[in-house]
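Minutes, structural biology subgroup

Action item carried over from last meeting: produce the structure token record for Domain of unknown function at the cortex 1 domain-containing protein (Aplosporella prunicola CBS 121167). EB confirmed the sequence was re-checked against the source entry. Recorded below for completeness.
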Amino acid sequence: MAEHQNYVLKVTAGRDYDLKNHQDVHVNTAKPVDISTDDIDASINVRIQDYRGLPKDSPATSPYFSNDGHKYDRYSIAYTFRLKNDVPGDKLVFGNDFDHPIRDRLPPGFNLAFRYLKSWIDPTIEGDINADEPYLYAPVLGSMNRLQVGSKGQSLKETIAGAGEKLGEGDDAITVIEEGAQGDGEDVRKEKSIPDAPNARMKHYAYEQYRKEFTFEKDRPYACDFFNSYLDFNEFAIKLPIITVPIVRYWDGQPLRYVLKNLETNEPLFVIHFTLIPADQLDAEDANDNARKQLADGDKESEHGSGASAPAPNDADID
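Output recorded by EB:
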């Protein structure tokens, strides 16, 4: 059995790093995780191609991956948010951080992979992978593959509904976020000279001076989609054209954590946890659950068999 098949994935999301405040993410479904705090209202969807994780009845794929723009992508983190205070464009970041050092667990080829990532995929990534609490953050303006600027006063549901192509029907319908704007959000893009094409916008905001000129406004909704074909959550590997890095072989037990963060306050706005669960642990839990169910069913049958029959109703009791 391949190493990655010894584990299954569990995805949760919440307002901070405390897992007590997290909800299970229903991967590849239309059901979002909704988060509301004093700083943000947010709605999050995660899609993973060839998903084999929790909850156990999760779909293995999503209509998202049938969209022409995403046929080769391996995952997507799509989120809509509205801030409750203005945040400067150079201070709102998205990325990964860890509670403990990982410098002794980095696989061979990681430094090469990171240089490739920074040179060819996202030059705005900054961080310290050798720190005691390592991190890699990139500005939302320059790192999100798709960015939609909503209209002030719009609800998050209205924003996501108008953010792109709709796939599916009814409660199962999803929206594939596209680059653009809605309502007076179009004025924002024009005033800030934001390029229409996503790659051009990302290159534009690779320059710090342009990020500093932008403000994520209080009460204005934004929709983002972060995706790529390089991180394979099915095999727990980074697959770049120049190298494949099998993450699971060097995993130290820490979750992979994605965080939307305000660098002005140094506080997370929301956190998404990708955690590996040993498959044999789940098998043991299933066996225990089945045993408990059988005992409970047996107790019910025993009670039913030994209990006295209920007396027949008296004619006087019947109207």
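Discussion: The helical segments are 110-121, 140-143, 156-161, 185-191, 198-204, 208-212, 279-306.
Next step: EB to file the record with the rest of the batch.
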